[in-house]
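Handout, page 2. Input:
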Amino acid sequence: FPARVHACLDTCHLFAAGYDLRTEESFAATMDEIGRTLTWERVGAIHVNDSKKPLGSRVDRHDHLGQGEIGELGFRLLVNDSRVENIPLLLETPEAETQHEVNLRRLLDWREKLQ
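Output:
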């Protein structure tokens, strides 16, 4: 497809579609699959949100980071993965007005703790 066409990934959508992000092994496999099929150069942004529904449910219900089915480790791995270092991460969690700061702080804390 044309070079100007990019994709936006969504962590909850990936999870609902059956791409597991919960363990180091399954996270690595998912990220490798994205690299093979889409290529990381085509990823223009990532919506970051946990999932209220289980893996492969095909149901898109966002939850606060680390409080849903994906869990804390999946987001720790994401914010420390060099493949996404220059890709904008956009919070898309519930209760934006009151909880975006909380969710952003979690991401920043998780990145700092693994460095």
